[in-house]
Amino acid sequence: MNPVPELAPHLKQLRLSGILDSLEARNRQAIEGKLAYTEFLSLLIQDEVARRDQKKFDLRLRRAAFRAGKTLEGFDFSRLPNLNRALVHDLATGRYLAEKAPVLIVGPCGTGKSHLAQALGHCAVRQGADVLFTTQAQLCASLTAARAVGTAERKLATLARVPLLIIDDFGLKPMRPPADEDFHDLIAERYEQAATIVTSNLDFTEWDQAFPANRLLAAATLDRLRHNAYCLTLDGASYRAPKLAPAASKSAPAKQVKSTEF
């Protein structure tokens, strides 16, 4: 007798329909291995927990809005011999999340700042944290749009609650009012309440250039970002260096270009 047709509606009612995916295989395993009923039940429950964990992980990964599958395993440390690897691996444990501390990553274009930030974000997702990846430009645009429709406070509150907010390309474009004020308000709300990762092409001493219209606002914002922050400097060759064309063979005859008169 096949019990699945009778079990299916009850499992759905209990929101355990995922068990149906492995029920047949586990039932066969139990028969062949002469497992006790409790062992069989334990296997089914473990399968359900694993499915739910994977579903949560996939959902967090989609919500994070990473640009690509950038992970720490795929990061090329050999290109950055001066990078503090010990600190990177320490950050990968997620300790800064519990500390609600900022992580600031600077370096020239193409050195892997975005990759490293997203890799730390992936680690956080694996550890069960909600993450949001965005650029400074996208972040300011979303706050400006919310302000235009009267939902700025709600948007700010939502962003302030994200356990890990990753802001890429800080200072790439100077912020003008009211974007600079919105950015300050967000950092102030997150200060010592949630972890924030910021990447920038600017040196730390140049970060005030992102606030050309209000130096006082710059000082207040950066003071909060730098307090108890972990700092990483990436200094090496760009990953985006153009590939050189293969050298032409000296023995190959030169191609004749035909001219055409018009």
UniProtKB/TrEMBL annotation:
Name the source organism. Answer: Azoarcus taiwanensis
Any idea which UniProt keywords this protein has? ATP-binding, Nucleotide-binding
Q: Where is the AAA+ ATPase domain?
A: 99-232
User: What's the family?
Assistant: Belongs to the IS21/IS1162 putative ATP-binding protein family.
Pfam families (alphabetical): IstB_IS21
Coiled-coil region list = none
Q: What InterPro entries has UniProt attached to this entry?
A: AAA+_ATPase, DNAC/IstB-like, IstB, IstB_ATP-bd, P-loop_NTPase
Which terms does the UniProt entry file under GO BP? Answer: DNA replication
What PANTHER family does this protein's entry cite?
ATP-BINDING PROTEIN RV3427C IN INSERTION SEQUENCE-RELATED (PTHR30050:SF4), CHROMOSOMAL REPLICATION INITIATOR PROTEIN DNAA (PTHR30050)
What is this protein's name? ATP-binding protein
Please give the Gene Ontology molecular function terms for this protein: ATP binding
Spell out where the chain crosses the membrane: none
Q: Which domain of life is it from?
A: Bacteria
